[in-house]
Amino acid sequence: MTETKTARLLAFALAATLISAGCARRDMSNEFFGQLEPPPGQTLRYISGSEPESLDPHMSSGQPEARLDIALYEGLVEYHPKTMEPIPGVAERWEIDEDATEYVFFLRGNAKFSNGDPITAHDFVYSFRRGLKPELASRVAYMAYELKYAEAYNTHGAFVRDPKTGRFLPASETPKPAEGGGEAGAQPQPASPAPHDEESLHRSELGKKGEDAAPDTEFHRFIHTPERLVVPADEKDRAKALKADPKLAALVEGKEFVPVRAEDIGVEAVDDRTLRLTLRQPAPYFLGLIQHQFFRVIHGPTVERFGVNWTKPGNIVSSGSHMLAEHKPYNQLVVVKNPHYWDAPNVRLETIYFYPLEDNTTMMNLYKAGEVDAVYNHTVPASWLKSGVRHVKDYMDAPENVSEFYVMNTRKAPMNDVRVRKAFNMAVDKQALADWRVVVKPSYSLVPGIFLKYPRPKGDGFDPERAKQLLAEAGYKGADGKFDPKKFPTSEVEINYNTNESNRQIAEFIQAQWKQNLGITVALRNTEWKTYLPMRSKLEYKGFARAGWVGDYMDPYTYLNLYTTKEGGDNGTGWYDPKYVAKLNEANREPNEERRMALLAEAEKMLLEVQPVLPLVIPATSWMKKPYVKGLYPNPQTLHAWKFVYIEHDRSKWDQRMPDMSTADLAELGR
Amino acid sequence: MFRFIVRRLIVTVPMVLIVISLTWALIRLAPGNFYEGEKKLPASIEKNIRAKYGLDQPMYVQYGRVMGNILRLDFGNSLRYENETVNDILKRTVPVSAVIGFCAYTLALVVGITFGTLAALKQNSKLDYASMGLAMLGISMPNFVLGPILVLVFSLSLYWLPPARWGGFPSWNILLPVITLSAVYMAYIARLTRAGMLEVLRSDYIRTARAKGLTERQVVMRHALRGGLLPVVSFTGPALAILITGTVVVERIFALPGLGNYFINANLNRDEPLILGIVAFASILVLIFNLLVDIAYGFIDPRIRY
After folding, report:
1. Which of A242, A281, B99, B140 is at 20 to 30 A from A106, Cα to Cα?
2. Which domains does chain A have, with CATH numbers?
3. pTM recorded for the entire structure
4. By the CB < 8 Å criterion, does B270 face chain A?
C-alpha cells in the first residue's frame, strides 16, 4: 500500500515538473522571447562562440575570434554593418589601378592605438610582414599570398641571381614582348595559391606601371620589375624541386640564391599616411579580403616586447573601437571603449561582455533569462525553433555567406559519368529538404544568392523522371530500355559525412529521397572530422561526401576558387578544368564589376554543367537579439562592427521585427 | 603503516608515466592534428607549423621531450591557446571544478548518509520507501536530464536562479550545478549507507552494545556508523577525484570554466600538452585518493591493519 502511495507521490512530482516545463514553453507565444530588461547604460552582453584561440589577429582563423578582433583591431577597411561591403577604416579613401594589382590607401591623420600612438602606414607594413613571417607559422598567412612575394617569403623562398651580371632571373625565362605598348595584358595565371608548382614558377608578369596615385619610389620600381623567379631557399627542398624540373635545374645552374626577405613583399609605406600594396596578380576582391582580422593593424613595439604574451591584459595595445579590460578564459572577455579611437565620439557601447559558450541550449537559457542581449548565428536549437521561437520578433532569419552541398568523386565509377551525377542531383527535392531543415533556403547552385550584383546561374531543379532517363542513358537499364535500379552498382556509392547528428539526419533525408525517387538505397558512412577531411581531399571515398563552405570574403570568387586546384586542397571532387580556371582569371582581370560578375557566373555555369557538386541548401542566420539592441544586423557573415551597436533605453524605439536590411539609413557609410 | 604509504607513493610515479605514455601514443595514433581546422591548409603553411612545434623531428625525440617535461612537472604551453601554459590553465580551472566538486561532495555526503541511516533505522517505514524511491530516481536520472529540468523550473519559469555561468564563490550561480552534480552521488551514498547499516545493525557487536544498555544514539553514532560507512568510504574516494577533476556534462550545461570543459575541448583540438597535463593531474589525484581511502580503512575498520 505504502509503495503505491510513494509511487503516486513520485508521479505527481514528475508531472509537476513537466507542467512547469510546459509553462516555460508557452511563454514562446509572446511577442519576444523571455525577459526584456536592458542592462544599465551602454553595456552589451554577447555570446561570441568558442573560447578564442588567440587574440593575436595573425594567429586565429575562426569566426569567434573575428568577432572579438573587430572590437580590438581596425584594418584599412571595415565591414559594412548590413551588406558586409568594405567601408573606410583606418584608410579614409583608396585608389585602385586599372588592372587591380596596385592598391593605394590614404590613412586618416587622427587614427591612434589604444595607448595614444598614431597609426601610420609603417604600422601596416610591420603588421603584414610580421603575419607572413615563416617562423610565426600563422595558419592564415595564405590569405595574404595575393601580395607580391608574400608567398615566397612565407615559404622560405629565394630569388636566383646571376653572379656575373648581378641580374635576378625573372619568373619567365623569355619575357614575351608587350602588346601595343605600355599597357600589357598579363598572362593568364592560375588563381590557386599552390606553392612552387610548375605554373607558379613559370608565371610571368610584364614590367608595367599604371597611373599611380602615389609618387614613384625606388621600392616601387623594384616591385614592378618583372616578377622574379623563386625557388626554395632550403638546399634539400631546392634539390627536390630542381630534380623534378630539369629545365629549371639547367637554368639556375651556377647561380646564387638570395633568400626572399620581408622587405621584398609588395607592401610599402610611401609616407606616414600613404600605404601602397602591390599584388602578384589582379584581384578585384582584394578589399573584401583585407577586412579579415589577419590584415588588421597591430602595435609593433608591444609585440616585440612581450612576444607570445603580448595579447594578455595589461600588455596588449590595440587599434579598434574597444580595448581589452579583462580576459577570463572560458568565462568572459570584457572590452571597454577605446578613448583614443579616431571615431570615438560615435562609438556608443562603453562595455561589451563577450561570453565564450558552445552549448546552444545553455546560450538560449541565458538569453531567455535576460542574462545576455544577443547571440551569434545558428544558436537556436532545432526543437526550440519548432516550438515557435521562429515567430518571435527578436529572431533573426536571413541568408548567409555559406553554401552546403555534397561533392562527388568524379574519378571513380559510377560517379565519373556526368549523367549519373546529374541524375542524383535531380532526384533530390531540395525544397522539401529546406522545409524540413527549417533554418535554410533551398539551393541549386554553388554560390549563395547574397551577392546582389551576381547573375546567379539556375542549376538543375527537382526532376526525378529526367533523372531516371539519364541513368538509363548511362547504361543502367533493363531489357525494356527503361531505368532499372537493380543494374546500378549500389555498393560503389555511399554518402560520407563527418560525425555529427545533423549531418546524419540530412544524409538520411537524402538517402530516403533517392530510395523514393530512384529506387536506389545508398549506404551512409560517418567519419570523425579530423579523419574525414584528408579522406575527402585525397578522394579516398566513393560516391558522395558532405561539404560546406563559409565564404572567406564577400565575393562569389570565394566559392568558385574551390575548384581551381588539381590535387588535394579543398576540391575533393577530382574535377579540374583549365578552361574553368581561365574563365575565372579572365573575370579577375576585368575592371568593370558588372562584366566581371557575368564572367564569374559563366564559370559557375560551366561547373554546374558537369556537376561535380550537388548543391543542397543555403543556411540562414538563425540568431536572436533583444529589441533594445540596435545597430546589430543579420548580415550574411554574422560579423558585426561594434562601433555601430548601441542599447536603446527608450521602449518606443525598440525593434518590432527583424531590422530592415536596406542600406538607405546608412548611406553615409558608402564611399 | 608508514612503510605502506611510502611504498604506494613510489609505485605512483611509474603508474603515472605509463598512463601518460599510453595517452601520448593514443593522441599520436588518432587521426588529425591540432592545427588543421575546417579548411585544408596549403602545404607550405603546414610545413611552417610543423617546423615551429618540432613535429618534423623523429618520434623518439618528441617522446623524450614529452617525458622530460612531465618529470619536471612543466607541460609547456598549450598548442591551442598559445600564450597559456598548461600549468596556468590547471591553476585557473582546478579551483572552479574543485569548488563545485567539494560542495557537491559535501552535500551528497550529508544528505546521503543522513537519509541512508534514517532509512536503515526505520526499515520499511514511509521514510525508508520515500528516500529510497527518490534515491532510485536520482541514480537513474542522468545529470544531463536533471540539470536542464532544474534550469527550466528555477531559471526559466520562476526566474529565481541564474541559468548558467560562473559567478565566483560563493554565489547563487553554483546552486544548480552543485545540486545537479551531487544528485547521483547522494543517491548512491544513501543506498550504500542503508545497506551497510542494515548489515551492521544485525551484527553481534551491536547486539552486545545494546545489551550493555547504551542509548540508541550511542549505538548508532559510536558503533554502527563506523562499520556501516565502510562501503561508502570505498565509493567516495575515487568519486571525489572524479568530482574535482571536473565533470564534463555539468560544466557544459552550466558553462563553467572548469577542468572538464577544457579536457573535452583539448581532446577535440588534439591539444597534446594540455591533454597530457590534465591526464597526469587526474591520474595523480585518483591514485592519491585511493591511497587515502586505504588509509581511512585502517582507521575506520579495526579489522584492517597495515
Report:
1. A281
2. 3-54+315-391+625-669 (3.40.190.10), 86-295 (3.90.76.10), 402-619 (3.10.105.10)
3. 0.81
4. yes
